[in-house]
Amino acid sequence: MEEQRKIFLVTSFKGGVGKSTVAVNLAVAIAICGRRVLVADCDTTNRTVDLLLGYEDAGMFDLRDVSGGRVAPSEAILRDPRAENLFYCSLPHTGMQPSAEKIAAALTWCADTVNAEYLIIDTSGGFDFPRALYEYMAYAAIIVSTHTMASLRAAERTGAELARAGVREIRLIINCFDIKTAIYDEGRAILDIIDNTHVPLLGVVLYDEALRTAQEKGMPAACVEESTSPEAFYNIARRIFGENVPLFEGMEIRHRRRLVSPADDEDAEQT
Ligand SMILES: Nc1ncnc2c1ncn2[C@@H]1O[C@H](COP(=O)(O)OP(=O)(O)OP(=O)(O)O)[C@@H](O)[C@H]1O
Ligand SMILES: [Mg+2]
Fold first, then answer.
1. Does the Cβ of 41 fall within 6 Å of ligand 1?
2. Domain residues for 127?
3. Which of 3, 14, 42, 150 has the CB geometry, 3.0–4.6 Å to 154, for a possible disulfide?
4. Which ligand 1 atom lies nearest to the CA of residue 175?
5. What is the pLDDT of residue 214?
6. Can you give the CATH number for the domain in which 34 is found?
C-alpha cells in the first residue's frame, strides 16, 4: 500500500489562511468519494482538526503513544462516525514531541493499519516541520493561501522553500475566495496574480459563512446544506484522483469573466 499511498502535507508560512479547514474538508470529500483517508493533526501549537470534526471529547491516544510503543495504532485512530472511509489521528498537544523520523514512522504505521490510500497532514505552518518530515516521508505539499497580496507572497515563499527542500509536487489552494474583493483593476486579473506564485493551482474554495458556522459545531462543509464549499472540495478531490475538472465546476460564482485575462475570457465563459 505504501507505494500507492498519496501523502499530502497542508502548509503555508502564513497563519489563519485555512490550512486545517482545507485538510479536514478535503479528507471528507476524498472519503465521501469512496477512498480511505487518514487525516493527521500535526499542528502541535493549535490542535484544530478534532474540533472541526467534532471529536474533541473523544479522549484517545496519539502518535507519540504509538511511536513509544505504548499502544497499537488502532488505539490512536478514530474512525469518523459519519463517513466510514475517514480516519483521524494526532500528535500530542503538550509535552515533548517525537522526532520527525518517529512521527513519519508512526504516521506510516497508522495509515497502514487502516489501509489508507490517502494521508493528509495538517501542520501549524512554518517550515521546520515540513522540511524535517520530508527527510523521512516523501509527500506532496498543498499550500493554502487567501487571495490577498500578502498571503500570495507567503505562498510563493513557501513554494520556493519546499522546492529547495526537494519536495517535488507542490500545489496551491486559494481559500476564502471572495469575488467582491478579488477583482483587481488595471487589467490585472486574479488568476494572473495567482500565476505569479509559480505554484500550480489545485483549486479554489469560496468564502463560505455557513462553513465557518458549521466548523464551530464540529461539522464539515459536506454536512451543511447551506454551505457552498462541498463542490469546491469535491473538485479538488477529483483533480487529485487525476480527473480533469474545470476550476469552478458546479460552484456558484458570478462575474467569472473578470477572473481571467481578457484573452482567456472565451474559455472561462464555458467553464
Ligand atoms: N472558505 C472559508 N470560508 C469562511 N471561513 C473560512 C473558510 N476557510 C476557513 N475559514 C475560517 O477561517 C478561520 C481560520 O481557518 P483555519 O483554522 O482552517 O486556518 P489555519 O490556517 O489552519 O489557521 P492556523 O494557522 O491557526 O493553523 C476559521 O475560523 C475558519 O472557520
Ligand atoms: Mg490550523
1. no
2. 6-270
3. 14
4. 1
5. 94
6. 3.40.50.300
